[in-house]
Design a protein that fits this description.
The chain is built from 25 helices and 21 strands. By secondary structure, it is of the alpha/beta class. It has 4 domains: 16-123; 129-238, Beta-Lactamase; 251-405, Reverse transcriptase/Diguanylate cyclase domain (Alpha-Beta Plaits, 2-Layer Sandwich), CATH 3.30.70.270; 422-669, TIM Barrel, CATH 3.20.20. Helix 13 (379-395) links the parallel strand 11 (365-372) and strand 12 (401-403). Helix 10 (286-293) packs antiparallel against helix 11 (295-311) and helix 17 runs parallel beside helix 19. The longest helix has 75 residues, at 54-128. The chain binds ligand C2E and calcium ion (2 copies).
Length: 670
């Protein structure tokens, strides 16, 4: 070190000597010294010689001094002028060069940043891509493989680089083909896409779709470089199937769900090839099980019940869980007696004693049956009539099988009474709205409220919307109810807006019935347009049913709402009422994850990866997600972990009356 420093110093000195300005300074000094010396030596002698008279000599002496200063001044001026001129030219040249360098440097810095960014980007893509990415050189030698590729093939990057490379991966019988492909890739400008396969370290064969291309024409080491990107076709298919499965199957029992059942019925009607029967089953005392030993046990029972049905129906029968404790079976039709026999023998198996935790439950089932084409010519009519027959069998003392008859509808007091009561209820203002708060799950901020309809009957007491809305939909009373709901909800919203709570969203449910009826939708929308509220904070929740036939018209109506700034939420996502297809078809902004789906999160054996993927998919597709029915901290934590931003549920808050909301907002603001 010391030695280096000394050397450095020495060099500095010799450098200085070599500098032209040092030489110039010497030159100026020498010229001045010579002139000054000569002047001192000679000027007095010359003067004495010319002016021997002392007096004149003395006065001349002064002029000589002035002359000396004049001459030396001129001399110094001329020398400096010449030097400075050269220096100035030099300086300008350097200044220009410096500016140029500065510009180049700035460019370089920019380029460097860009390169680092590109490199990072590339690295990230390569690290996280769900595809195999292999780079290789002119001789076919593997240069790198990404982590996903390592996982899929079972080989480490080292093993592939240092070992026989492609020979390890390519199936033996394909090897010569691979060499041909290699030459083809070398000659092509664009990417070559071809089918291939790899043999993994543990000997499995995985089909791969490859895309290969020249990466660099000339790499640092001289040769060309190539990249091959491979997609695992099986994995992709599996993933797509999982998502499809989720849309069409019930997560609890794994049976087809209502959506799939409705589509199956529609398909049978379309195909016109045969008549069929639908048995609509409802467990008589399921509520008992749930209430006395809890939801978890209820779920265990439903799985057991589903399996019992599956084990005791003929292979051609199609079994689905329609929701809750309702199941349906689609039978090929032979004769009325034949169907009755089949359902009776099934009930012998399902209507048994079920024991759980040392408790015994006597299981009975009520069944309604419809026949096609006798009892209806479309899916919703058939299902509605099957439901009516099932309720009639319940009314007649439960635990029986009834075929649908047209006079059941009138006989059906459930329908008749309820329909009359609904009319009365609306006339006598027995309805009111409650609001369920929705929160941001990260910040716990209140972000919105869902308006839910309530019916307090003077003698019957509280009637659940789950019971009266389906009937109101069938009788057409839903139109009037929903006109009342939208008016009430918007009146309340404008009050909240005036109180400064305008930032809180209002969600309002809209039935498919109203959405698919041109006149009733127009009337409903007319009421909606009468209010002077912030429409961008209004969300309309719709659900999927197989009933939406005029897709184009429904899209048109939703777009009318969207033009006002209103957002559309797809309700009950994950129950099968709502599927991914729906998201593609309709202009949806928000997905509401169904309660049953949230329940499944903490259930044993449920694929949490699937839930994670659904949330990821929703995020990727830029859908907002609101989780429904959050009941436990565990569920909430998992949702947060999986990037689900908002939610509602009993854990956060039950639906509240307007007075309670008022208190909530007041406390919230403190
Ligand atoms: P929805 O739209 O899916 O509403 C959510 C339902 O889940 C509400 O039941 C709510 O009280 C309930 N819920 C919320 N959090 C939890 C929870 O943590 N656990 C459990 N177990 N349940 C929770 P509700 O009020 O009985 O409404 C039932 C359905 O009736 C609604 O389901 C909606 O489809 C329909 N509905 C309610 N009000 C209206 C309305 O104004 N118009 C229309 N068309 N339908 C409505
Ligand atoms: Ca809803
Ligand atoms: Ca829902």
């Amino acid at each position: 070190m010391m030695k280096d420093a000394k050397l450095h110093k020495k060099n500095k000195k010799s450098d200085e000597k070599n500098m032209p300005y040092i030489f110039d300074a010497y030159k100026v000094a020498i010229v001045y010294a010579i002139f000054g010396g000569l002047w001192i030596l000679l000027s007095d002698k010359i003067l004495g010689f010319i002016f021997p008279d002392l007096k004149t000599y003395k006065s001349i002496q002064t002029y000589k001094g002035v002359l000396y200063v004049l001459i030396t001044t001129l001399l110094v001026y001329e020398l400096l002028r010449r030097r400075l001129k050269l220096w100035h030219i030099e300086y300008k040249k350097r200044e220009e060069a410096f500016q140029e360098l500065k510009l180049i440097n700035e460019e370089l810095v920019k380029l460097d940043a860009e390169l680092t960014y590109q490199k990072k980007l590339n690295e990230n893509i390569i690290m996280e891509a769900p595809s195999i990415i292999i780079t290789w050189d002119d001789t076919g030698r593997i240069l790198s493989i990404n982590p996903f590729g390592e996982k899929l093939t079972g080989y480490t990057e080292e093993e592939l680089i240092n070992g026989p490379g492609w020979k390890l991966l390519v199936p033996e019988e394909r090897f010569y083909m691979a060499i041909d492909t290699y030459f083809e890739i070398k000659d092509m400008d664009e990417a070559l896409i071809y089918d291939g396969a790899v043999i993994t370290k543990d000997g499995r064969r995985v089909d791969i779709l490859w895309s290969s291309k020249t990466l660099f024409q000339q790499s640092d080491e001289g040769g060309k470089k190539y990249v091959s990107i491979g997609t695992d076709l099986e994995e992709r298919k599996r993933y797509e199937e999982k998502i499809k499965h989720m849309a069409y199957y019930d997560t609890l029992t794994n049976l087809p769900n209502r959506l799939m059942f409705e589509q199956m019925v529609s398909k049978h009607i379309r195909d016109k090839d045969s008549s069929f029967a639908i048995a609509y089953m409802d467990i008589d005392n399921f509520k008992n099980i749930n209430d006395s030993i809890g939801h978890k046990a209820g779920d265990v029972f439903l799985k057991y019940f589903a399996n019992t049905i599956l084990e005791n129906v003929e292979e051609s029968a199609f079994v689905a869980r329609l929701g809750g404790d309702e199941f349906a079976i689609l039978y090929k039709y032979d004769s009325k007696e034949g169907i009755l026999e089949k359902v009776e023998s099934l009930l012998k198996q399902t209507n048994r004693i079920w024991s759980h935790d040392n408790r015994l439950f006597y299981i009975s089932t009520s069944v309604g049956i419809v026949l096609y084409p006798e009892n209806g010519d479309n899916t919703s009519e058939l299902l509605m009539n099957a439901d009516i027959a099932m309720y009639a069998s319940k009314r007649e003392g439960r635990n029986r099988i009834l075929f649908y008859k047209s006079d059941l509808m009138e006989e059906n007091s459930r329908y008749g009474d309820m329909a009359n009561n609904l009319q009365e209820g609306m006339d006598q203002q027995q309805f009111y709205l409650v609001y369920q708060p929705q929160y941001n799950l990260y910040s716990k901020e209140l972000i919105g409220m869902e308006a839910l309809l309530r019916w307090e009957h003077p003698s019957e007491g509280f009637i659940s919307p789950g019971d009266f809305i389906p009937i109101a939909e069938r009788t057409g009373q839903i139109y009037r109810l929903e006109r009342w709901v939208i008016r009430k909800a918007l009146e309340q919203r404008s009050i909240w807006e005036q109180q400064g709570y305008g930032y809180i969203q209002t969600s309002i449910n809209l039935s498919t019935k109203t959405l698919t009826s041109a006149i009733n939708f127009a009337e409903w929308e007319q009421i909606l347009s009468e209010y002077d509220v912030d429409y961008s904070k209004i969300i309309i929740e719709i659900t999927e049913t197989a009933d939406i036939l005029d897709v184009e018209n429904v899209i048109g109506r939703l777009n009318i709402l969207k033009k006002r700034g209103i957002r559309i939420a797809l309700d009950d996502f994950g129950t099968g009422y709502s599927s991914l297809n729906y998201l593609k078809k309709f202009p949806i902004d928000i997905i509401k994850l169904d309660r049953s789906f949230i329940n499944a999160i903490t259930e044993e054996g449920v694929d949490t990866l699937l839930i994670k993927n659904i949330l990821k998919l929703a995020n990727d597709l830029k859908f907002e997600v609101i989780a429904e029915g959050i009941e436990t901290y565990e569920q909430m934590q998992l949702l947060v972990d999986y990037n689900c931003e908002s939610g509602q549920g009993f854990l956060l808050s039950k639906p509240l009356t307007v007075e309670n909301i008022f208190n909530l907002l007041n406390n919230y603001n403190k």
